[in-house]
Design a protein that fits this description.
Keywords: Pantothenate biosynthesis, Transferase. It is built from 9 helices and 8 strands.
Length: 243
């Protein structure tokens, strides 16, 4: 699974053959608008939309209504909600209308402040047990998969072993059923905090800035555009025009 937030990044996921495309709310903006763009670009991956903070905490009726918008208006195929047992009933309501739900426990970025920032979760026996119970409640509520974020490797392994549904890890070690990364982080495009568990497969940040600088310089010095970037006109037509 990999995130995408707009048409070009969705096309990257499409072309790479990655199976699931998550419109992550690490984006934190106009989610429906971005989902529509991603759906145009990523045709083959299964499309999951992060429900934004505030769109599912005020009761099941509200949550179901908002989940439906992602399916009907934004062409998504599933939604993702952050939280454990406290949102199990809400998830049950969403799955009961036929919308697949992906869960998300451990470090849940929407609650980063009450979790004490971006830091490891489930790292005491008591916290790990609570996490396992949360994951089981989500499974019971009908989730088809659960993201495990920023938890010790063995807690993720044990949780995965004790669930029937697949887990997708981010900062949770190698023993989860699948992995997820934020596309711009793994490409090395920095516009947000990059956690230690994100491997950078490229440093596109420098490449992009260098490209933009070259463009700017070439425009200022008249190097770009050249004849090859221009449209031709028949000599005879040009003469008539100049006359
Ligand atoms: O918001 C996001 O991109 C996510 C992934 C890190 C799982 O939730
Ligand atoms: Na998210």
């Amino acid at each position: 699974m990999l995130t995408a937030t707009n048409y070009p990044s969705a096309v990257f996921v499409e072309k790479s053959g990655i199976e699931i495309c998550l419109v992550g709310d690490s984006l934190a903006m106009e989610m429906l608008h971005h989902c529509k763009a991603v759906a145009r670009g990523a045709k083959s991956p299964f499309l999951v939309a992060d429900m934004p903070f505030g769109s599912y905490e005020m009761g099941s009726v509200d949550a179901v209504k908002n989940a439906i918008r992602f399916i009907k208006e934004a062409n998504m195929e599933a939604v993702k909600l952050e939280g454990g047992i406290e949102i199990a009933e809400t998830i049950q309501k969403i799955t009961s209308v036929g919308i697949p739900v992906m869960g998300h426990v451990g470090l849940t970025p929407q609650r980063r402040t009450s979790l004490g920032g971006f830091r490891v979760q489930g790292n005491t026996a008591k916290k790990a047990l609570k996490l396992l119970e949360d994951a089981k409640a989500l499974q019971e509520a009908g989730c088809f998969a659960i993201v495990l974020e920023a938890i010790p490797e063995m807690v993720a392994a044990y949780t995965t072993k004790n669930l029937k549904i697949p887990t997708i890890g981010i900062g949770a070690g190698v023993h989860t059923s699948g992995q997820v990364l934020v596309q711009q982080d793994m490409l090395g495009i920095f516009d947000r905090f990059v956690p230690r568990f994100c491997k950078q497969y490229a440093s596109l940040d420098n490449t992009i800035v260098e490209a933009l600088r070259s463009y700017r310089d070439e425009v200022k010095t008249g190097v770009f555009p050249t004849k090859s970037h221009c449209y031709p006109m028949a000599e005879i037509e040009l003469e008539k025009f100049i006359e």
